[in-house]
Amino acid sequence: MPSTPSPPCTRRAPDAGAEAAIEVGGLGKRFGRVTALDGVDLTVPRGTVHGLLGHNGAGKSTLVGVLATLVRPTRGTVRVAGHDALRHPERVRRRIALTGQRTTLDLTMSGRGNLLMTARLLGAGRRAARTRAGELLDAFGLAAAADRPARTYSGGMLRRLDLAMTLVRRSDVVFLDEPGTGLDPASRLDMWDMVRHLTDLGTTVLLTTQHLEEADRLADVVTVLADGRIVATGAPEDLKRRIGRRSATAELATAEDTATAVRALAGAGLRPDGDHERRTVTVALDHDEDLAAVVRALDAAEVRPTRLTLSEPGLDQVYLALTGHRRTEAR
Ligand SMILES: Nc1ncnc2c1ncn2[C@@H]1O[C@H](COP(=O)(O)OP(=O)(O)O)[C@@H](O)[C@H]1O
Ligand SMILES: [Mg+2]
């Protein structure tokens, strides 16, 4: 029997296969007079979780729609999973999964039934479909309810089933548009686990969220979108360091003490923000020496705070500083 020659060694240059999962340049989208996206550039490396953060109407869903080939941009370039999404949307569609904010479930069927049907429609054999459905039911805590009609599920269970439906097919890039919305805290933790599990398998995840904690805990890199433009991008820790601010808050015993503290701190060149109703004074700590200056100023004015607390910058602050919007949690 002739021995088959082994295939030539096709070792690639180290970065030949390292094309980003998502590459967007100069992206713009107008809906009539509304500019939903305005010059968006974005690169998401493979196997990472990218968080798209922004208030209602910032353009998150439009961007996801463009990446998932559902929305045609007005201008710009879009590459997803190695394909040009404008010239070959069908190639992109085969490599991605998208979960929207509304679900396409058959409520008369069980959770397992929905998953099995989707798997079979995607071409899986009977056994492979059962295995995948079982894995997903376990991962999303739906095993106990797997064989009940989906119409008996709670809102949170339906959201989890919807997410599971998105993941039936193993995709290179998964888009999750506000996956945490409508989930109770426990289900949200499960969802976070699932997302991490996806990246372990090399999948790239782009998720939109209005929940800052979700972005903070889950995303390797966060992009903050406001009115269709990117206003910041970076690892959550970097954003907090760059844009966030440490602060100290003193709680005072009386209204008089509060007023004295505000005067003393302002006199020391700090910028106190007094809340006379709550009898607190908050001072931004812009420099390393500011905390000591706060203590000295209060002591010199003979004000004894009942409590002094330090706050590290949170993503909330970063978001507020960048967008001027307080977070609005859509639930
Ligand atoms: N199909 C559409 N037709 C007209 N305007 C739209 C359409 N989709 C989105 N918009 C508008 O584009 C802007 C961005 O919307 P969207 O991408 O849904 O924001 P987000 O998901 O961040 O809340 C909003 O002003 C919205 O009203
Ligand atoms: Mg949206």
Automatic annotation (TrEMBL):
The processes (GO biological process) annotated in the record are:
response to antibiotic
Source domain of life is Bacteria
Q: Where is the ABC transporter domain?
A: 22-252
One example GO MF annotation: ATP binding
Q: Where in the cell is it found?
A: Cell membrane
Q: Which UniProt keywords apply?
A: Antibiotic resistance, ATP-binding, Nucleotide-binding, Transport
The record ties this protein, via PROSITE patterns, to: ABC_TRANSPORTER_1, ABC_TRANSPORTER_2
What topology in the membrane does the UniProt record assign? Answer: Peripheral membrane protein
InterPro entries registered for this protein in UniProt: AAA+_ATPase (IPR003593), ABC_transporter-like_ATP-bd (IPR003439), ABC_transporter-like_CS (IPR017871), ABC_transporter_ATP-binding (IPR050763), P-loop_NTPase (IPR027417)
An annotated GO cellular component of this protein is:
plasma membrane
Note the PANTHER family from the entry.
ABC TRANSPORTER ATP-BINDING PROTEIN (PTHR42711), DOXORUBICIN RESISTANCE ATP-BINDING PROTEIN DRRA (PTHR42711:SF19)
What's the protein name? Answer: ATP-binding cassette domain-containing protein
Q: Which organism is it from?
A: Actinomadura logoneensis
